[in-house]
Task: structure prediction
Amino acid sequence: MKTVLTALISCMLSAGVLAAPANDPATLGKIRDASMQSGYAYERLADLTDLIGPRLSGSAGAAAAVEQVADAMRKLGAKVTLQPVKVPHWVRGVETAELVDYAKRPQGVTQRIVLTALGGSGATPAAGLTAQVIVVKDFTELKARAAEVKGRIVLFDVGFDQEMADRGLAGPAYGHGSGFRVGGPKMAAAMGAVGALVRSVGGANFRLPHTGATGLSDADRIPAAAVTAEDAMLIDRLSKRGPVTMRLTLTPQNLPDADSFNVIADLPGTDKADEIVIVSGHLDSWDLATGAHDDATGVAGAMAVLETLKKLGLQPRRTIRMIAWMNEENGGRGGQAYFEANKNALGKQIAAIESDGGAGRTFGVLAGVMPGAEKLFVPLQEALRPIGASVVQRRDRIGAGDLHRLETGGVPSFLPLVDMSSYFNYHHTAADTLDKVDPDQLRRHAAVMATLSWYLANMDEPIGRAPAQGQ
Ligand SMILES: [Zn+2]
Result:
């Protein structure tokens, strides 16, 4: 009797008469376990980083990455679309600096300064420029010393707060430092500086410079670079003894915008196929290394969501859409293009996940949802408890790089909750390479992304949307 009933139910399920149980503990557990046993995310991470390497917008690496990810998704049977995106095309050149004069400098001695140009930096003459360096600790000090800025190189000497990072506050620590990287050169340019330097934003002071975007535009494109923490401290100490003069050579090129793409791969849903749950990472990376943590881990994790569900033969009610965003690092054009294409039907974008904090130990999920909505996630938390990833932290806004327009438009947004205490040791440096990623941690990370994606794609109750705000 029982067998007849089971056969009848499975027959009705396959005929679509009954909706299959979706967010039940068994299905969620199956997705979690399959992800925890899979090497797929690490294989995709290795392909992106070892076979291609750096993937800065407009580069051959970025173009190859679009093809590689699209091919892999087609191989899974996903519906792949390449969404055109015009991206900034900035190319690094020569980058050298030395201190050619300072108080008590022995005859014939100069000191090499280790630095790297910031994305969007202007160029010096090919032979370099020579100017005095003025060291400031913040914007207030720069404004107070406005009369000294003209014709000088401004150094923002702001240390990275590793203690904050060690205690779970890497994001705010990074936000403080990167504020000077983004806004400092622009302010220095407006005040007549001939160049701008920032102290590298990140920990692990092994005399490694950390690059990143700066807010310069064609109107104020002065040379701008990040010096290592050690070199920033040296310049600061010497400047207390007297004037410090630097010869700075930076020869990056700002080329016309290039053609590129977001890679979009859909696992179509069943009865709610027109509703979309995004799971994503960004495909572009900085050019100093292979963008392993930032953000090949995010892309590989998102790709693995589709692979796991395909392998298990699970079809979600809503469409799960893997997106590998282009140009998160120096323009955000991919997120912008997707928003523009969907802004008139944002109600169909049910939820969006982006992983862009590396693949450190993952503890759960950061949820940008309305107050009270976190209680809808109890079954998900139970499913993730066996792998130590059951935390759901609610915030009004999570501010993920490529999702912020969707989020501002009211789309509930999610990030994996990751230990980022060592993330900024590698992020945007020459050391962000495959060997820094722990395969076991990546598996857990992918398991959280897969279980969360499935859960969002099959929830009965709406999560609740924040009212849209001005873009
Ligand atoms: Zn990133």
The pocket of zinc ion is lined by residues 282, 294-295, 328, 356 (CB under 6 Å). Residues 170-190 form the longest helix (21 residues). The mean pLDDT is 95. The first strand starts at residue 79 and ends at 91.
